Amino acid sequence: MSRKPIPAFRYPPVGKGRPQILLIGNGLERTEDQPDWDALLKALRCPGRATLPDAEKRELPFPLLYQLLSTPDPAPVRMDEAALKAEEQRLAEGLKLLQHRSNPLLDRLPQLGADHILSTNYSYCLEKAFYPRLDFSYGAARSDKRFCFRPPDEQGKQHRETNFRLHTGYLAQNADGSRVGLWHIHGETTVPRGVVVGHDRYGRLLSRMVQICGTETPHRLDTAPRVFRSWPELFLFGDVYVLGFGFALCEHDLWWLLRRKQRERYGDGSVYFYDNDDPDEPEKALCNRLLQAHGAQINPDVQRVPGDYAAFYEAALERIAARMRASRA
């Protein structure tokens, strides 16, 4: 039985009512039973490839570290089909280590009232917060809640996204009954080919984002609502609240999008970055300066709670909810 098509997301082109977007990372999902990056990297390492000392791991950006550990040693001049399939299989098996459980912080998100939640996490912990009784590791559950706003091709046909899902998310409902789109912007567990880990996939994802954002048309004088069909478009024109995501320097797709948002002639909305790390730590201080140079506001109206991330996240969520309500007033 075919399901009723989901209408596109529509928002005013500028001003009040613009999309309210939460961007979350591993900080909100971190639990005792969720494997850390080291455990995941161990599962993804190519057989025969030696492990690296911790000091060298810290020196390498994660996308390059993954690329190194996932490549045979000695490295071939050209990887054949068997090697590529073996890498995909290791990635698929490694992703099975991830747990799909909510936690008290994620359980707060349905009360937030966001229009969209973008997650860099691969697991379905976010979906579990909105659908406690559904198991998104099963295709039937994902299919039932999935929406796809991919534009039709030149022949007018709409093809389902199979790898990088810039137009595809899951539809959920906030506690107040409003709808919210859930987006895995760096891929999800059940779609290994679309998981963004190595620098080559970051490059391909960014290429797609540039193409999508290049199709934007001016809406300065428009009075009709703007139709959004991808998460990069939502990011460009909405208020974006970043929580539990460190904005590492290797996340060049999102750094590009920050600058594009800052330079968008007919853009709207602000970026708010909430972080509980020590701002005097050199790497964090550099990241904060870069964020401010890209137009982001850091911890507006929220005080750090050193050593207590749960308390900080609670305070930040309260402030984010207040700002979202004010945006709709």
What does this entry look like structurally?
The chain is built from 13 helices and 10 strands. It starts with 8 loop residues before the first strand and ends with a helix. Helix 2 runs antiparallel to helix 5 (81-95) and helix 10 (231-237) packs across helix 11. Helix content is 38%, strand content 13%. It folds into 2 domains: 10-33 and 100-328, no CATH class; 37-95, no CATH class. The protein is of the alpha/beta class and 329 residues long. Helix 11 (252-263) links the parallel strand 8 and strand 9 (271-274).
Question: How are the SSEs placed, and which strands pair?
Answer:
Elements lengths: L8 E3 L8 E5 L1 H4 L7 H8 L9 H6 L2 H8 L11 H15 L13 H4 L3 E4 L5 H6 L8 H7 E3 L19 E6 L5 E6 L14 H15 L12 E3 L2 H7 L1 E5 L8 H12 L7 E4 L7 H12 L2 E3 L10 H20 L1
Parallel strand pairs: 2-3, 2-8, 3-6, 8-9, 9-10
Antiparallel strand pairs: 1-7, 4-5, 5-6
Helix pairs in contact: 2-5, 9-11, 10-11
Spatial sequence of strands, sheet with the most strands: 4-5-6-3-2-8-9-10
Helix and strand element order: EEHHHHHHEHHEEEHEHEHEHEH
Q: Give the low-pLDDT segments.
A: none
Taken together, the total number of domains comes to 2
- What kind of assembly state do the chains in view correspond to? single chain
